Amino acid sequence: MKNELLIASAGAGKTTLFVKKALACSDSVLITTFTEENEREIRKKFTELNNGVIPPNVTIQTWFSFLIEHGAKPYQGKLTNKRINGLFLVNEKSGLKYRGKYPVYFSEDEIDNHYFTSDYQIYSDKLSKFAVKCNEKSNGYVIVRISALFQNIFIDEVQDMAGYDLVFIKLLLETDSVIRMAGDPRQVTYHTHFSSKYKKYYEGKIQEFVLNECKQLECLIDTDALKGSWRNNQTICDFANKLFPEHPQCESLQKKKTDHDGVFFVAEKDTEKYLEKYLPMQLRYDRRTKKINPKYEVKNFGESKGATYDRVLIYPTKKMLDWVLKNEKIDSFEVKCKFYVAVTRAKFSVAIVCKNNDKSDVLPIY
Fold first, then answer.
1. 85-115, pLDDT tens digit by residue?
2. Which bin fits 207, alpha (ψ -120 to 50), beta or left (φ > 0)?
3. DSSP-derived 3-state class of residue 113
4. How do residues 301-357 score in pLDDT, each as one tens digit?
5. What is the C-alpha to C-alpha distance for residues 76 and 83, in angstroms, rounded to an integer?
6. DSSP H helical segments within the chain, as ranges?
7. Residue 314 gets which letter from DSSP?
8. Helix spans in 302-343 (H)
9. How far apart, in whole angstroms, are the C-alpha atoms of residue 238 and residue 252?
10. Which UniProt keywords apply (predicted)?
11. Coil, helix or strand for 349?
């Protein structure tokens, strides 16, 4: 089969695999991924594997950049006579008309207000829908053009795609281009929009989407090629596996040892000493997280996706800490995914900040 979906573990080397396959292509290649962090990692991997050069036949773009340039703008005139003025990122449903007892939103027939801000930036959660509608109005020429431009399309972090993104991916699978997708269903930290379209596949269920909605199309699903981690040591793999016991358990392929390996608690009073000694990357849930040490670098959990660090220091939410200390279930899929991402950024050690009076026989306390 020419198309494939690779179900990957964290640190399994999907970026390396994609770059090697792209370098083997003599015709045109698009590699697209959801986060800017992962786009940088892809560019970095090309320079590592190809003598510092990204080949001229290879285009690397984030998913939003790709959709604006090739999905929305070429045939935008089919829906509007105004010019798209960039992207407006949203973290909730866009196009609010007014808020009464319940919020009321502009209908899709009200083009200017449904898809765009007042200065005609397109809402990020409506971008793939706009591209799909442009394709419908142009008798499929949006997709025909993309397939003509790119004979090989690699879609990384595909687990973050939702709603009309999935519609767009299905349309690409119907073309003559070779479509390769990779993702880890445990790393759903972003959703591209809030549409009710294909809502049952929201929680990382890209494999189920391909099986159920694309069964008439050629697409091989491979759950074996990328199931081991070249990043995390076995202790970190074992800890991360407990967050998603229903998924295939990841095994470490990384055998390097250091003088500080494993998963630990660090009391709040000892974080300064720990940071000074081991220089871990500080990871927090979001900017509201308190007691971060400003003298050392910090990233949000979601922002860190795609990155690798020797060591991380995690500032957990209460739900995360209760799961570790008391084995209390994390009932939020998003929280569980973000914790998984944070833990699996580290090669050698994961330290989790706990209260000064916390006692535990679950993990050693630094």
1. 999 999 889 999 999 899 999 999 999 999 9
2. alpha
3. helix
4. 988 988 899 999 999 999 999 999 999 999 999 999 999 999 999 999 999 999 998
5. 8
6. 14-23, 36-49, 63-66, 111-115, 127-137, 141-149, 164-173, 206-213, 234-241, 271-278, 318-326, 333-343
7. E
8. 318-326, 333-343
9. 9
10. ATP-binding, Helicase, Hydrolase, Nucleotide-binding
11. strand
Give me the residues paired with residue 353 across strands.
266
* Backbone φ and ψ of 291, nearest 5°: 65, 25
Residue 140 pLDDT > 80: yes
Dist CA 236 CA 215 (whole Å): 36
pTM: 0.89
Q: How far is CA 100 from the centre of its chain?
A: 34
Q: pLDDT: is 42 or 360 the higher one?
A: 42
Q: What is the pLDDT of residue 191?
A: 62
* Closest among 250, 244, 127, 142 to 191, alpha carbons compared: 127
- Domains of the chain plus CATH, in order, are 3-222 (3.40.50.300), 230-354 (3.40.50.300)
Q: How many helices (H) and strands (E) does the chain have?
A: 12, 17
Tell me how many degrees the CA angle 64-69-70 measures, rounded to the nearest 5: 100
